[in-house]
């Protein structure tokens, strides 16, 4: 389903559709000053050291400080740099005295009691707790990083509700244990045993969550997956060609017309072992995927590596950050230049190029040339606009009103505010930069509330900074004036996400900072620590951000989507019409010997028995079992676990699954139910006899 070229007429039809979708434009924005100095030229060298050196030194020092090494504190640099504030704050052990800090204008509760973990407690705030038996207000969908899964948590309790295996087999849910999901992992998914999920995004209609699907990338093996949010089960995986790492993931809005995968690692195209040292042979691509079929529609090749991405609210623009504008092919070559780009993709213009046949077909997919020198980027409707930013911007997200795309500087202490409407109008894309506030050290990702605030994680400062993005458009580039507040997090945050921040109407009450390190916040559990997901209440601007909860988290969530509970409607039982396999009702069980070495069994499970208490097959038989859970009562789950044969089918009510195995070892095997389903659950079993063949 993944790499086949799509029929051209189909593609044209969709092209028309998409152009119509994009007919509207972004809401009007105030004309902001386009600052010529917004982008710094020339490398930042202080005392003969580059920014990267200073950051490396600083990280070594904060690590040592956290271990209590005073010597490290003594030699910690207190740099007063134009773009760096390395000595400005310490990396405190929880409960330790507040160290040397220089104030920051407009900075209020930098170290509040709870923020500093004074009492070491978590989840203290009663107002934001969810008593036993009561439900949460929100679903949080967290990526699981290199576990390859999605975690579902309730907010504000932060209780983990469910895990959804995506790129890995998982026995408790029987994922990758029955025929259908095994085929999904092995055929569509390419047979890898793991993935690296970073960016879970829930589908939208009219710029609001519709609760239908969740899409997530696999950074490791260049894939995109779809989770069906009725069953909370992965139902499609697309192996993206011409791309080694699909990193950023998001959608064309307002109506999820396309799903975008942002290719990160550049590889030679085609990647066949030739041309490994020729930078011109390398490319990275943006991939557009049809959300219904999960087929790749087209790709756009660009200069440099890409990183994260986000779609505008109006359907025309898609933004991706990137690095390596040098186009290096080794690590050392990639960070020399002091400037990189946010690429703004003009989606309808790309469809036009595809429809006009202006592409090269590579690995069965139309690849449009969006590099700087491409003829498609000449004229008055370039398909990709390159907006220059300071080096290596990381996260990018579009404000809820669709006015701005905000890119976080990572190696630069600023965020770059790009006007979405302006990007279509300016001659020089640099003129679409409307603001560039100095937010702090190591800005990575930005989320939004419903009151015009942006919240940006500061990886190096271990803080979340709250700032006003309209004020940033008014202010001079490099100004700290737009900053409303900074709050410590513990420690070193990557992504953060606010409730419904990716929609046009964020809820503005909760925010989760996904911190990469937990250090001393929890009982030690060996050298690999959990991460720390911290919940903030952000609904009261006067009171400021309030840290409500610490939640240890298994490695390692990167991003999340927070969706109001009313927008998700999970099924209570399976619907027999929703899968290809025929349901096996009670009384219609069967055992059929097809030939000398093939057996087909149709059976059911209910409290506390299987249709067959005993099954006899012969050594070497290929045995196919189709089994239905005939229960209609919600939450009565059975399984069919067969020892030695590596089988464990999880069966929710009304579900039917199928498995095939070769009975190659004579003997007695007790198939049993692994879900604790009833008082006689332990008795629920079937004796499988494999008779010797001779
Ligand atoms: S990335 Cu991991 S913290 Cu993959 Cu969105 Cu920035
Ligand atoms: Cu069925 Cu336990």
UniProtKB/TrEMBL annotation:
GO cellular component: periplasmic space
EC assignment: 1.7.2.4
Keyword Oxidoreductase: yes
InterPro entries: CcO_II-like_C, Copper_CuA, Cupredoxin, N2O_reductase_N, NO_Rdtase, Nos_propeller, NOS_propeller_2, NosZ/Cyto_c_oxidase_sub2
Keyword Heme: no
Coiled-coil intervals, chain numbering: none
Segments forming domain Cytochrome oxidase subunit II copper A binding: 594-694
A single GO molecular function term of this UniProt record: nitrous-oxide reductase activity
Record PROSITE patterns: COX2 (PS00078), COX2_CUA (PS50857)
Key words, A-Z: Copper, Metal-binding, Oxidoreductase, Periplasm, Signal
First-tier enzyme category under EC: oxidoreductase
Compartments (UniProt record): Periplasm
Basic and acidic residues: bias regions: 8-22
Pfam families reported for this sequence: COX2, nos_propeller, nos_propeller_2, TAT_signal
Primary site of residence: periplasm
Name assigned to this protein: TAT-dependent nitrous-oxide reductase
Organism name: Halorubrum glutamatedens
Gene: nosZ
């Amino acid at each position: 389903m993944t790499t086949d070229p799509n029929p051209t007429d189909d593609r044209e039809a969709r092209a028309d559709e998409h152009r119509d979708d994009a007919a509207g434009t972004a809401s009007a924005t105030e004309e902001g000053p386009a600052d010529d100095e917004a982008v710094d030229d020339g490398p930042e060298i202080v005392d003969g050291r580059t920014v990267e050196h200073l950051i490396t030194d600083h990280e070594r020092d904060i690590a040592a400080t956290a271990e209590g090494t005073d010597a490290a504190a003594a030699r910690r640099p207190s740099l007063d740099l134009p773009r760096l504030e390395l000595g400005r704050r310490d990396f405190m052990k929880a409960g330790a005295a507040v160290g040397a800090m220089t104030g920051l204008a407009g900075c209020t509760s930098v170290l509040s009691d709870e923020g500093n973990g004074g009492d070491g407690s978590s989840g203290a705030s009663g107002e934001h707790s969810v008593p036993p038996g009561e439900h949460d207000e929100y679903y949080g969908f967290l990526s699981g990083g290199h576990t390859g899964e999605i975690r579902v948590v309730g907010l504000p309790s932060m209780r983990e509700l469910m895990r959804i295996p995506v790129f890995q087999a998982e026995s408790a849910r029987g994922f990758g244990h029955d025929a259908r999901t095994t085929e999904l992992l092995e055929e569509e998914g390419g047979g890898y045993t793991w993935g690296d999920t970073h960016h879970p995004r829930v589908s939208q209609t009219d710029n609001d969550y519709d609760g239908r699907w969740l899409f997530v990338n696999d950074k490791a093996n260049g894939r995109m997956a779809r989770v069906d949010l009725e069953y909370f089960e992965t139902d499609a995986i697309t192996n993206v060609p011409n791309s080694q790492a699909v990193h950023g993931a998001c959608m064309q809005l307002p109506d999820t017309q396309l799903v975008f995968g942002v290719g990160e690692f550049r590889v030679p195209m085609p990647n066949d072992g030739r041309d490994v040292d020729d930078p011109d042979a390398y490319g990275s691509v943006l991939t557009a995927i049809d959300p219904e079929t999960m087929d790749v529609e087209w790709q756009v090749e660009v200069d440099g590596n890409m990183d994260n991405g986000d779609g505008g609210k109006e359907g025309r623009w898609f933004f991706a950050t990137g690095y390596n504008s040098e186009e290096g092919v080794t690590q050392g070559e990639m960070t020399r230049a002091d400037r990189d780009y946010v690429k703004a993709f003009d989606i309808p213009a790309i469809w036009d190029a595809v429809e006009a046949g202006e592409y090269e077909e590579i690995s069965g997919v139309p690849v449009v040339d969006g590099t700087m020198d491409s003829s498609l980027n000449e004229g008055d409707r370039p398909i990709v606009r390159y907006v220059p930013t300071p080096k290596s911007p990381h996260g990018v997200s579009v404000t809820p009103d669709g006015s701005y795309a905000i890119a976080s500087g990572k190696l630069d202490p600023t965020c770059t505010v790009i006007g979405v409407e302006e990007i279509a109008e300016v001659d020089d894309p640099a003129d679409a930069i409307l603001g560039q506030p100095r937010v702090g050290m190591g800005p990575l990702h930005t989320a939004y509330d419903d009151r015009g605030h942006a919240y940006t994680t500061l990886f190096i400062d271990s803080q979340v900074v709250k700032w006003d993005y309209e004020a940033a458009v008014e202010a001079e580039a490099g100004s700290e004036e737009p900053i409303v507040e900074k709050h410590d997090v513990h420690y070193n945050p990557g992504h953060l996400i606010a409730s419904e921040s990716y929609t046009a109407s964020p809820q503005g009450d909760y925010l989760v900072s996904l911190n990469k390190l937990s250090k001393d916040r929890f009982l030690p559990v060996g050298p690999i620590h959990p991460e720390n997901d911290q919940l903030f209440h952000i609904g009261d601007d006067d009171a400021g951000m309030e840290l409500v909860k610490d939640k240890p988290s298994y490695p390692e969530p990167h991003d999340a989507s927070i969706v109001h509970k009313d927008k998700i409607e999970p099924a209570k039982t399976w619907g027999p019409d929703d899968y290809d396999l025929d349901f096996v009702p009670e009384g219609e069980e069967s055992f059929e010997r097809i030939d000398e070495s093939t057996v087909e069994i149709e059976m059911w499970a209910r409290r506390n028995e299987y249709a067959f208490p005993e099954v006899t097959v012969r050594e070497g038989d290929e045995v196919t079992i189709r089994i239905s859970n005939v229960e209609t009562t919600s939450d009565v789950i059975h399984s069919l676990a067969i020892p030695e044969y590596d089988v464990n089918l999880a069966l929710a009510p009304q579900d039917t699954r199928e498995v095939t195995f070769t009975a190659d070892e004579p003997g007695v095997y007790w198939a049993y139910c692994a879900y604790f389903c009833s008082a006689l659950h332990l008795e629920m079993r079937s004796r499988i006899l494999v008779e010797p063949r001779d």
